[in-house]
Amino acid sequence: MKIRDMVAPNPGPFTLSGTRTYLIDDFAVIDPGPAIDSHIEAIREAMPKLKKVFITHRHADHAPAALPLKSLTNAQIVAPAGGLEVIATPGHTSEHVCYLTPDRDLFTGDTILGEGTTAIFPPDGNMSDYIRSLEKLRQRNPRRIFPGHGPTRDDAIALIDEYIAHRMQREQQVIDALRAGAHTIPEMRRRIYRELDERLYGAAEVQIYAHLIKLQDEGRVDARDGAYYVSPRA
Ligand SMILES: [Zn+2]
pLDDT tens digit string along 140-171? Predict the structure, then answer.
């Protein structure tokens, strides 16, 4: 399959240079992106024979352009077919999917980004599910990764391993912070994310919270009155 990419004009701390919209041969688009007129027009110009629109997940930077594209081009918003396999990858959102081509090219939406890491926002986002989804993708032995944000990666397996290792390291940092006496999420954030842009404090604290939920589900951490403790059973 011939793959081209376009970057939507929505750069930011979470979207990196902007959402990547992928054009597959001359008939399909994966993640049409935000409903920005110039972006929709650019997709239309690049894809005069557009037939199918695929979406990895429902977030505002990935899905909204699907509806105007459908009405402008008569393309269908579809479940995958024609060689694209859908892989359920809950974690970033509960309904997130990735798409795998017969050449083992993998479209990962926000499950794996081309640079940096993705954010898990509970309760729709779930860290346990997310790590299981990464392991599931690794088992499919993808060749290249076409992420929702950031550049295409030719080192798919190494990148997935890096993603899993990063989460395991973060989990260990949460446990270490608890053992060192940081029992609230802001205290843990100050220990774990030492040099962080203030605009990302909220997101960082939610990531810690996502790890704490996983650790509680596993019986390794207890919560009492808004504070967290390593479980005596762990
Ligand atoms: Zn996104």
Answer: 999 999 999 999 999 999 999 999 999 999 99
Query: Which of these ranges, 75-79, 83-87, 189-193, has the smallest mean pLDDT?
Result: 75-79
Output the CA 190–ligand 1 centroid distance in Å.
26
The answer to whether 216 and 222 have CB atoms below 8 angstroms apart is yes
ipTM: 0.88
* Superfamily name with CATH number, domain 3-154: Ribonuclease Z/Hydroxyacylglutathione hydrolase-like (3.60.15.10)
Ligand 1 center from residue 129 Cα (angstroms): 18
Interval between CA 221 and ligand 1 midpoint (Å): 30
Would you say residue 79 has pLDDT above 80?
no
The arrangement of secondary structure in 169-230, i.e. its CATH architecture, is Orthogonal Bundle (1.10)
